[in-house]
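Colleagues,

For the teaching module next term, I've prepared a clean inverse folding example: a structure given as tokens, and then the sequence designed for it. I'd like students to try predicting residues themselves before seeing the answer, so please don't circulate the second half yet.
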């Protein structure tokens, strides 16, 4: 979105992800890659000019999709995962107390 004028956004269907591949994943490597990736993203976002936040893309579900909206969606997506993990932890705690 920062390099191309109104690029198309591909919507990813999480239901199509390969769940089996996660069973053999090195979680330490995943956490390091995630952390490193977030650091790079933050560094890049901190360098944006005000007009960069309004650069648009073509999204199949949103008419006025821009960089700001993409970042907000990323944050909401990650918040949803954190909430799901908290729910799982609470369920495990309840199970352990039986």
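(Answer key — instructors only)
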């Amino acid at each position: 979105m920062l390099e191309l004028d109104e690029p198309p956004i591909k919507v990813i269907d999480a239901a199509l992800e390969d769940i089996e591949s996660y069973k053999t994943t090195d979680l330490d490597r995943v956490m390091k890659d995630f952390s490193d990736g977030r650091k790079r993203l933050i560094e890049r976002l901190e360098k944006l000019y005000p007009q960069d936040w309004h650069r648009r893309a073509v999204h199949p579900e949103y008419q006025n999709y821009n960089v700001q909206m993409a970042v907000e969606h990323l944050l909401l997506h990650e918040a949803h995962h954190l909430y799901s993990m908290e729910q799982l932890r609470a369920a495990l705690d309840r199970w352990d107390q039986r």
